[in-house]
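Methods: example folding runs. The two proteins below were folded one after another, and each record is reproduced exactly as written to the output file, sequence line first and structure-token line second.
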Amino acid sequence: MRVEDILGVARERLATVAEDALLIDAAKLLSNPGCNLVVVCDDGGKAIGVITKTDIVNRISQCTGCSCSMPASRVMSTEIVSCRSNDVLSDVWFAIRKRGLKNVPIVDDRLAPIGVANARDVLQSLLDDVEHEEKLLQDYVMGVGYQ
């Protein structure tokens, strides 16, 4: 199984802001149900960072006066763990688990975001694939469909 197998649902989760967007713009996107990660993009559309709800909470807890009107780029994490549509899902799951992530941006060849892979979706797809293979093996052993 590859990332492209979950791309439909991953595209629905994609939320982006420009690097000069305000932190409040990212916070508004993160307030939408199902949105847990905002990808920050440069003028060319390339992913240059990510902002999570935790990043917003940490920054807001330090706000005084109008300091929360800072650019999103000052809060984003620049070390992005991402994947591509042709990556193997088990490799993506390993990276997610190893780093304790919940979401990983999916990028194209230009490093432009095209979706967000959620850990639950990745794991569910892997489990479904194993169950399907197990059913096929069981049918084979039982001789179902072979006469």
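Second run, written to the same file directly after the first:
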Amino acid sequence: MLKRLSAVLVVAFSAAPALAIECPITHAIYEQPGGDVSLRFTALPEDAAVNQIAAFSIAIDGVTAKFDGAIYLPNGFGQPNGVVGLDCTGADGEQCGFWEGVVYALGGDGIEEYPHDAEIGLAAQMAPRQVLLPQFAVNVWYSLLRQDAFADERNVLDTFTLTACAK
């Protein structure tokens, strides 16, 4: 009986369609389970560095601080690196470093480097199904934001899943 139930569950879950959204990266909206943590890509700012390939923001329900992020291709090394800044308490609105690391994405063949194709441009680049910011959640856990970010048994994770496309 247990083997038959296991087989039925495997067939049922493997038959479920995978979420497939065709969305330009600049319109992509990602969330974590429960929807309390989201990541949104935006167009590059006019003053973006030459090697910046993406801009995004992260919002965590219950946390008033604003997380702004960017992804860069460092000179001489093609692995996409990301940075997330956090609003500082200063009146000048300057960003403080909060997270920095390699950015990964879920592609057709599994986990791979964050996609970047300079020939087609950011506006035409399609959003990956998931974006991974390794150790982002650890930085939130060990920050002063911990109590608000993890309130009500909420989890903050490193993985963001594409859930919508803002048009």
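Comment on the second run: Strands lie at 28-31, 37-42, 52-60, 67-72, 81-87, 95-102, 104-107, 110-113, 130-132, 159-165.
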